[in-house]
């Protein structure tokens, strides 16, 4: 089963807000999560998408994060950025309104679900015990999360079938094929099992690069849900942070083809930025490979490449969110 070496030593320390601001944020989160079921129920079905997107963006704001969407799909002249609070330079969404799409990305923490839903509402494959979490659990039920017991591989075919049925019905489903969370600087291999649902139904796959930046635009690991983290400790760290940005990069859509393993490799390359770099995009990030863990080194420049291998960390069992077994 997938495991992550990420742990407490991976987590950054960034600027924090005061206790009063934390209390206000927590009150805002509680108010949104308590009011959402009522607002969703009284809203006509045809108008629920903008309502749900709006609630997700407000929730992200209450968590102290600003949303940035970078659209790398289509021709270069059609690409652009949607930055919350600024002008919309390009349309943003995961797929056509009446066609299913499988959304795949790396997994950093529970805030990933809020960030992705802020682009466009979608369902998720997520850890089964999420419905028991305070506040977030009720939201998971309303989002019709497909639960998965990662330790029970015999349940995996049923989960793939459930994802396929939802895709065939025209829904958007988000999955985290790494099978566990990573800190945001290191990442794991995308397991091919859940891609089978896209292959079986002929559904396009939307690769998404998701990262979190601090107030200075530097990638940070504060939202990482890794190692011995609990939901309470992770939520406290996020609520205290100042000026974070959740950046969602939409890479070119991948057609499913007939081989789930080949599809998983294509999507992993897109999510890690290989496609964008090959297309001449400005992202010059480089990755260091150390065994099965690849760590992004922001100090390396394209003009003066230097490979530095990080010290090996002791293996710590990371938090599990989704299944990604073969």
TrEMBL record:
- InterPro entries found in the cross-reference section: Plipid/glycerol_acylTrfase
Q: Where is this region: Disordered?
A: 291-326
Q: What is this protein called?
A: 1-acyl-sn-glycerol-3-phosphate acyltransferase
SMART domains under this entry? PlsC (SM00563)
Which CDD domains does the protein's record reference? LPLAT_AGPAT-like
Per the record, the pathway is: Lipid metabolism
Compositional bias segments (type: Basic residues)? 309-320
Q: Where is the Phospholipid/glycerol acyltransferase domain?
A: 101-213
Q: Which domain of life is it from?
A: Bacteria
Name the species this protein comes from. Answer: Nocardia abscessus
- Molecular function terms in GO for this entry? acyltransferase activity
Q: Which UniProt keywords apply?
A: Acyltransferase, Lipid biosynthesis, Lipid metabolism, Transferase
């Amino acid at each position: 089963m997938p495991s992550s070496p990420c742990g407490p030593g991976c987590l950054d320390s960034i600027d924090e807000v005061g206790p009063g601001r934390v209390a206000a944020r927590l009150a805002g989160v509680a108010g949104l999560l308590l009011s959402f079921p009522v607002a969703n129920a009284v809203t006509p079905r045809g108008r629920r998408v903008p309502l749900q997107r709006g609630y997700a963006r407000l929730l992200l704001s209450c968590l102290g994060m600003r949303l940035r969407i970078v659209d790398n799909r289509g021709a270069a002249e059609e690409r652009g950025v949607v930055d919350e609070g600024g002008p919309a330079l390009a349309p943003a969404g995961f797929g056509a309104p009446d066609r299913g799409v499988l959304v795949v990305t790396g997994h950093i923490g529970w805030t990933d679900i809020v960030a992705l839903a802020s682009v466009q509402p979608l369902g998720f494959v997520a850890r089964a015990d999420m419905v028991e979490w305070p506040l977030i659990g009720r939201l998971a039920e309303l989002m019709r999360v497909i639960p998965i017991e990662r330790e029970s591989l015999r349940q995996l075919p049923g989960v793939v079938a459930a994802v396929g049925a939802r895709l065939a019905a025209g829904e958007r489903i988000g999955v985290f094929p790494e099978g566990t969370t990573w800190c945001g600087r290191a990442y794991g291999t995308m397991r091919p099992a859940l891609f089978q649902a896209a292959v079986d139904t002929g559904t396009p796959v939307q690769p998404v690069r998701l990262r979190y930046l601090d107030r200075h635009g530097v990638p940070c690991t504060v939202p990482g849900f890794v190692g011995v983290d609990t939901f309470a400790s992770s939520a406290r760290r996020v609520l205290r942070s100042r000026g974070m940005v959740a950046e969602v990069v939409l890479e070119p859509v991948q057609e499913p083809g007939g081989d789930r393993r080949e599809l998983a490799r294509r999507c992993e390359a897109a999510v890690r930025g290989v496609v964008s770099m090959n297309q001449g995009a400005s992202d010059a990030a480089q990755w260091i490979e150390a065994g099965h863990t690849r760590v992004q080194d922001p100090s390396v420049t394209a003009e003066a490449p230097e490979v530095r291998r990080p010290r090996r960390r002791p293996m710590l069992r990371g938090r599990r969110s989704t299944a990604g077994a073969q």
